[in-house]
Amino acid sequence: MTAADPVADVGALAEPVERVGRGWTSALSLANGAIWVGWYGPLQILLASQAEDFAPGTGMSKETMLAWVTGAGAVVSLVANPLFGALSDRTTARWGRRTPWIVAGSAGGALSLLLLAGAGGVWTMAAGWCLVQLTLNAAFAAITAAVPDRVPRLQRGSVGGWLGAAQILGVVGGTGLATAAGGVGGGYAACAVFTLVGVLPYVLRYQDLRLPASARPAWSWRTFAVSFWLSPRRHPDLAWAWLTRFLINLSNALVLLYLLYYLRDRLHYDDPENGVLILTAVNGVTLLATVVVGGVWSDRVGRRKPFVVWSGVLMAVATAVLSGWQTWPGAIVAAAVLGIGFGVFTSVDFALMTDVLPKAMDRGKDLGVINVANALPQVAAPALAAPIVTYLGGYRVLYLVAAVIGLAGALLVGRIRGVE
Fold first, then answer.
1. How would DSSP label each residue in 345-371?
2. I need a labelling partner for 153 at 20 to 30 A (CA). Which of 34, 146, 328, 352 fits?
């Protein structure tokens, strides 16, 4: 059976054993990258520009406004990702469990980006960003769950590497589109089009695994609600893996949140928007150099934890550079080293997460709960960063705190016992 062949109903819950082909991996990676374009064009450039325009007269600084808007969107993401993952687990459509949510989520995300382009103030800006988070998380939850559905364990590092490469290309592409489109409205429109078009090769070419109605558990509101709690006592490896991801992503979020303002207000860089694009591109180049290699290497040696530990340590060192060497060359070096570390972390940590999933029926929901560790830092980062930058020492202290948090996340990987 090839990745494009029709699949038997029983395959939806079976542990995959046949390797997926390059075409399937490429199409899923493109879809993943398209979702990240829809997220990071706004996060890197467009939301910050809107906050700068809307802040005068509101009694809020641009930093505080951006923190509130991105924090509100992150709260929506916290709920949306596991919710849509759980709904896709139960979907019995003829097009499969995941494809309907990829299509609906990306189409809704594109429309939400266009609505956000017309925001006239902080409230419509926040509402638009929350809609973007709601819809794109539906697509992202389904894309993520497709990997343990279809990819055997000893191929997940390499597939995770390609997904990670697509992720950073999505970040770079979103930043580039937002910068080059000639204004906030044009930037949102360009990101919306790419987000929708990018998922089409996967949903049109590859048939999804179908879940027979007879295999779907009986519906119960109470059972459905309770299922989102994954007990750390019953699943300690999953809990430690979740905490590791949360801390390292929190460190990364603290670095990225005020990057535009850091270049403008602390480094006094002449063109901070293009500066963000340059740093993102440098980070992307070094990340691309390691993300696939790290995943393939992890698959070959059959081990995950050492890769996650040392990539986390390297990222903490790079973040400390931003604290201690506050110059444009220092920012370039930090971006490059962060890319090396985050490349390895992205691919291998994803494979590690799929290795500790409790059961096949709940792959989408459980990965959605794990993905909360990606979204929750977006809530926590503004809450930590705004007072640190404003009252507690500025960017030097902010990046030092970020380095300590990332180092703690790296060291806690050793508490995972069930994975080599």
1. HHHHHHHHHHHT---GGGHHHHHHHHH
2. 34
Helices marked H in 118-183 — which ranges? 122-150, 156-180
Distance, in Å, from the CA atom of 175 to the CA atom of 208, rounded to the nearest integer, reads 31
Report the run of H or E that residue 25 belongs to, with start and end: helix 22-41
Residue linked to tokens 């444009």: 328
Q: What is the pLDDT of residues 210-240, one digit of tens each?
A: 887 777 777 667 777 776 666 667 777 778 8
CB atoms near residue 403 (< 10 Å): 23
Which of 29, 199, 4, 207 is CA-nearest to residue 104? 199
Quick check: 12 and 94 in contact, CB under 8 A?
A: no
Task: Evaluate whether 103 touches 203 at the Cβ level (below 8 Å).
Answer: yes
Q: Is 289 in a helix, a strand, or coil?
A: helix
Choose among 394, 372, 271: nearest CA to 323: 394
Per DSSP, the residues of 91-120 read ---TT-SSHHHHHHHHHHHHHHHHHHHT--
pTM: 0.78
